[in-house]
Write a structure and sequence with these properties.
Strand content: 25-35%
Mean pLDDT: 82
Helix content: 25-40%
Largest sheet: 4 strands, mixed
Number of strands: 11
Distance between the termini: 29 Å
Radius of gyration: 21 Å
Amino acid sequence: MKYGQLISAVVLACGLLGCTDFDGSLKERLQAEYDRMNETGNRAICYLAGHVRFPYIDDPTLDEGKIPADLMRYYNINREELAIHLPLFAELGLLERQPVSEGSPYFRYSLTEEGQKALYFWPGQGPAGVSRDLDDKAYFCYGRRVILKVTDIEDVRAAGGEYVYTEISYDNQLENVPEWARDDRLLALFQQFTKYYEGKTYKGAGNVIKKDGAYYNAGGIGRLVIGHY
C-alpha cells in the first residue's frame, strides 16, 4: 500500500470511528484525548501482572491435562512470569497472598482493596478454556497525565518526501501517583528507566494525521504499558 493510500485509509477510519480532531488548541485537545482514554484518572501507566484472573492459585496440578501441546511453552513462560510478578505486587499491597492450606507450597492470590482500584483487566477472547485464559491480561495501573504545553510539531515524511504523520512533542506531569508506584523494586523488575513522580515534568510525544489543517488521532495517544509480553 502506498503512503498516500495509507493516509487516506487512516483519515477515513477516523471519520468513521469519530477520532479526535486536534484542530485548535493542541494542548487542550491532547488533554481531552488522554482523559478520554483514562476516564478513571488512574490508568496513565500500567504494569502487566500477567495473563491471569484473580483470585489465582499457583498450583500447576490444577491445570494437568488441560494444556494443549501447542500452548505448553506459552503456559510455562506465563507461570514463570507470575511467580516473579505476583509476590512483589503482594508486598506492594495490591494482592493478598495466602497458602492454600497449612504447609502447602502453593498460594492463593486475591485482590486487596488497593489492588481492586488499580486493576485494569482485559479479558481474553473466544470460548472458555485455556486458550482464552492465556489471552487474559491483568494490569495494575496508576496516574493521570496532565499536558503542560506543546513544545514541537514536526511532519514526518518518507524517503520520497511523502507525508506519513505528524509528531507532537509536549511536556507533561503525572498526578494520582500512589505509594506502591514509587517503589524502586518495580523499576528493577520491569527494567524501567524512568520513575514517575507527581510534580516532575516529563517529555512525551504522540503521532497524529494532518489533513486540511486539522489533526486526527492516529496512534501513540494512550496509556503506557510496561512489561507487555
